[in-house]
Amino acid sequence: MNKDCFSCNFKDDEKFIVLRTKYWKIAVLDDQAYIGHCVVVSLNHREALAELTKEEWEDFGVLQKKFEPAMKKAFDSPLLNWSCLMNSDFRKKVPMHVHWHVYARIGKPIVINGEKFEDELFGWHYDCKKKQLVNEKTREIIAEMIRKEIK
Question: Rounded to two decimals, what is the model's pTM?
Fold first, then answer.
């Protein structure tokens, strides 16, 4: 753990955690510009993918096999986008921490808790400037939709 690292010190509310393994946790974020937007965070401080151990990579594979089908089923999504860029940490000059952002890509709009989610760029690269902050209740519902599909 790095005392100056945001990810090491970030304690998200358990109601937003959809999966936890020995080395990783997945949390639903409040920005749902792309439905199901989650962050997959290493529980150990690793500043680069090359620093991950064999055990961490193997655990990541187990996590993917549970998480990907759950996301696809929860949102009727034919594909997911995974990104591990870490540009924000670099620009902010804070310790980098291995994490992925995961988005379900949907071909048709869906409504959750009265909020409409659309993917105008379905099949293309996502728009990193698009924002759609959701309230806590909607975020909880999204987390539960994913959790109930994890086998």
Answer: 0.90
